[in-house]
Amino acid sequence: MEHRLALVGVEPSSIDAIVVTHHHGDHSKSASKASKKWNARLYSNLETCIRMGLEPISEVRTFEGLERLHISENLSLLPVSVPHDDADNVAIIASNGEGKRAAIVTDLGEPTIELMKHLSGCEHISIEANYDLNRLISSPYPPSLKKRITGRGGHLSNVQAADILAEVLHPNLKSIVLCHLSEKNNAPHLAESEVLHQIGDNFQGVLSISRQEGPDFSNLLGQSDLEQIKSTI
Ligand SMILES: [Zn+2]
Ligand SMILES: [Zn+2]
Predict the structure, then answer these.
(1) How far apart are CA 216 and CA 194, in angstroms?
(2) Per-domain boundaries in the chain
(3) Which run of H or E residues covers position 18?
(4) Lateral strand order in the sheet of 87-95
(5) Residue 200 exposure: Cα atoms within 13 Å on the Cβ side
(6) 0.85 surpassed by pTM
(7) 125 closest CA partner among 151, 154, 156, 148
(8) pLDDT in tens, 39-73
(9) What ligand has the least distance to the C-alpha of 24?
(10) Could you tell me the distance, in angstroms and rounded to a whole number, from the CA of residue 98 to the centre of ligand 2?
(11) Domain 71-231, CATH 3.60.15.10 — does that match?
């Protein structure tokens, strides 16, 4: 984690809060350790707190869905529940209090009306494009796993991510980061081409792909300021 933070120039000691979206290991591992080491307050909803084996109140500041968390004077976070497996997962909408908002949306089988409402108007959207449907279908994964991934509690495909982006697209959408790409069932060029196919003509911002192994980006469209994107996620 410290290595990943160093890649985007963030000092661990400067972190005030760690928000865990759900208990799955790729989102919660080391969160408790990091919060103690860096003296950063840990936030999650009650289900996630319990599933991480932590104590509410003493170890985790728990929140409800749609409860606005005031992290600092100019940063609040809105957790929005999304369907994902047996987890009580949330997307996060960050706001600076002056009308600028950014979203981080991963690990959901499909969007909800509530989520679409909150994504509309965001200037920056980081969203999962987990799998390419053809690659998943032809993969050696067992049928039960394929069904889980494509189901309501699974992950967003490239097409689903592109559909969501096309629906919430507005002239002030400055950047999109496609993230949580499956290494086996997706590839950056597949995710990119699907999204461009849907929004290319109307999107004036920067589209980037976040690699699985850390916050390293392929910047595939619009060669404007990559640093600007890195600083917003
Ligand atoms: Zn998950
Ligand atoms: Zn995940």
Answers:
(1) 21
(2) 1-63, 71-231
(3) strand 17-19
(4) 69-72, 75-84, 87-95, 101-105, 124-128, 175-179, 206-210, 217-221
(5) 10
(6) yes
(7) 156
(8) 999 999 999 999 999 999 999 999 999 999 999 99
(9) 1
(10) 30
(11) yes
